């Protein structure tokens, strides 16, 4: 459920009509709903109620400081994957003891930053990383709390570019080697083993792969404890999918995901961490765009929008399907006609939808891409020297620009021309 609904013939974010934001801020623009973010966070809290747990929001999904502050105030921890994300989480007021650090390629500088300023745990993904972290921690006179990310060799049945739990993927340590690596870790003076980490992929629409992975983690917990390790935390990653298509998709509910966690791991007495990103932010945001031209093509028509692949790359990158709806509510029973919906960037990949059945939308009209709150603004670029898309956060009947559109002066001022070019 989200808070983007038509009322009095116009699509709103909570109580704010989207045309109001389009006029004030311009388009394209991302619009987020604070009530939806809050609701989605609480749904996870309810799903894990009664279990000792921490929800570490995967901030790669949407790392705007206002979004982080809002979730942090609700009690969220953060899953970060870079020094930059760590600094964002801290700038949003999230304490180090609620931040987990994931990622296959942490640098020594990033380790130093997080260790120095406070971290709940590093999710270690390889032996070279383990030894480097040990050395960095010892240099600083500290012990780094770690979980080792195991790769359970489970097929998450999602898009190949976002599946992470198969043995051929770059992530984690093969589960078969886990005992050996934990034994190595236990011998390192700069390392304190606190748990196990697993993440099998993103946009999962079936609970069976979770069940399979968590069962393997349960068995490994018992083995590692028997080996003498203090396994008190299980980080289960994120990945629960969302219904991009409301007409034919019904991904599992967080409540049922919580039930799988209880059933497979509840008896171990571990603290449970989860790292949801998309489910919290995805349906809490839309990308608002205006039609520049309606163009007649050979056997097809095109809607050319002022949003492009640089603003929302998911369709170009993953063939992702986003619902695109007119901001003015179509009449009941309005005729739908197929149209290609594209952006102005100079490549054919800048296509959002092909032969999409749409009610009539004309030049100057507004459309909204639904489910764009996750992996939207964070993946935007300035390709074609298009300004980075701004972001707006709505709460009830008010809104704030939480990232302004940069001016072209700002954009140009980041480049410098060396004297020797003349
Ligand atoms: N934890 C780890 C270690 C991850 O790698 C990810 C996502 C998450 C948590 C959060 O997964 P979520 O709950 O959001 O599914 N850009 C792609 C998605 C990439 C996901 C990468 N890792 C997209 O637009 O679909």
Structure in words:
There is one protein chain. This protein is of the alpha/beta class and 422 residues long. The chain has two domains: 4-31 and 282-413, Beta Barrel (Lyase, Ornithine Decarboxylase, Chain A, domain 1), CATH 2.40.37; 34-279, TIM Barrel. It contains twelve helices and 21 strands. Strands 4, 14, 15, 16, 17, 18, 19, 20 and 21 form a nine-stranded mixed beta sheet that branches. Strands 5-6-7-8-9-11-12-13 form an eight-stranded parallel beta barrel, surrounded by five helices. A three-stranded antiparallel beta sheet has the order 1-2-3. Helix 5 (108-117) crosses helix 6 (127-139) and helix 8 packs parallel to helix 9. The termini are far apart. Ligand LLP is lined by residues 58, 61, 79, 102, 162, 199, 202-203, 237-240, 275-279, 314, 318, 375.
Brief rundown of the structure:
The chain is built from twelve helices and 21 strands. It is an alpha/beta fold and 422 residues long.
